[in-house]
Design a protein that fits this description.
Oligomer: single chain
Bound molecules: dinuclear copper ion
Shape: elongated
Distance between the termini: 54 Å
Strand order of the largest sheet: 3-2-1-5-8
Number of helices: 9
Amino acid sequence: MQLPRLPFTPEQASTVSTEVDALYTYLVAITLFFSVLVTVLILYFAVKYRRRSENELPHPIAGSIKLETMWTVIPFLISMTIFVWGASLYFKLYRPPKDAIEIFVVGKQWMWKFQHTEGQREINELHVPVNAKVKLTLTTEDVIHSFAVPAFRIRSDVVPGRYTFAWFEATKPGRYALYCTEFCGTNHSGMNGYVEVMEPTAYQAWLSGGGSDSPAAQGEQLFQSLGCATCHRADTQGRGPVLTGVFGKLQRIQGGGDVLADEAYIRESIVNPTAKVVEGFQPIMPAYQGQVSEEQLLQLIAYIRSLGAPPAEQGGATMTNSPASGTTTTTGLAPDAQRSNPIGPTSPNVIQGGSPPSGGLSPTSRRPNATTGGTSQTGGNANRQP
Ligand code: CUA
C-alpha cells in the first residue's frame, strides 16, 4: 500500500523503507483522526450539554447495549489492523534471508567495527552493493549499543554476550548515515558512521582492494593457536566433540535435552564451556572468557560454521531446506540455525517475497576467490581439517 510520505522522514533507500513508512503514516492518520474527533466532540458536548441554570439536574442515562458493542468492536477491529500489519512487517524485518551477504558487526565504546566474509575490515564505514541482501550479525564488546540506519528503516540493539541480526537491501547507491541509538556513555553522540551503497562493479573493485583473511580463515588460525585442535580433533579420538557438521544441528547435552548449535551456543561453549556439555564428554574444557575478543569469537564461529557437514550426514532433517548446503552453510545460516533469532525459524515463503540479487551478484560471483588468498569459503568444505 502506497501512502503519502510524511514530512521530516528520512530518505527511503531500502526495500522495506516504503513499507515501514506506510505503516507509520497509517498510525499517524489514525491518531490524528481520533484526536480531532475527540477534541471536536468535547467542545461540541461542552456547549450543547452545558448547565443552563443553577438548579438544573442532568437526565438519568440508561445503558445501551448497541452503543457499547459498537465502541468495543470498532476499536478492536482497528487495533487488529495495526497488529496484523505491524506483526507481518516485523517478521519480515527480523528474519534475515538465507541468501544474504554476511557481515559481522561489533559495537564498542565508541565505534562500529565491521568485517566482511571476504576479510575486509572497516570502522564506522560499511561498504555494500546496491540491490543485494545484506545480513548483519551484531554484538558488542562492552555495553549495550543500538545499530540504526534510518534511510534503510532498520535498527537492532546490540547486547553483550548475545548475537542479534538485522538485514537490508539497499535500493540506490549513495552514502547513508548510521547511528548508535542507545545512550552508551560520554561519546555516544559521536558513535556514528556511514553506509556506502555502491554499484556492483564498484563494490567488486572495492572488495578486491586487499584486506586480510576471511573470518573463517582467521578463526581457523585461532583454533590452532589457542590449542582447540588438540581436543577437538577431526577424528573421534579427541577429548572434545568433533566439530565438523555441528553447526545448525541439535546437540544432546548432559542432563537431558537438546540444544541447537547456533552462534549463541557456540559462543557460550567457548566462554563458559561447562554451561551445556555435550553428552558423553567430560566438563574439562577451560573457559575462554576474557581471552578471546568478540571479533575473535565471531571468527571462531565462522570457522566452525565453515566446517560444514560430511557428505554422509547431509540430507538430515536440518539440511533439507538447503539443497546446495555444500555452499550455503558457509555463507548463510542453515535454516534451523535461524532459531537463534528469538522469533523463530525463517519460513522460505515469507522471505522469498524480495527480488533475487540482481546486477550480476549471484551468491557465488560476489565471493571472488582471488580476494582471500586461497582461503575462500566458496568451496564449502575448503577449510575443513584434513
Ligand atoms: Cu553506542 Cu550509543
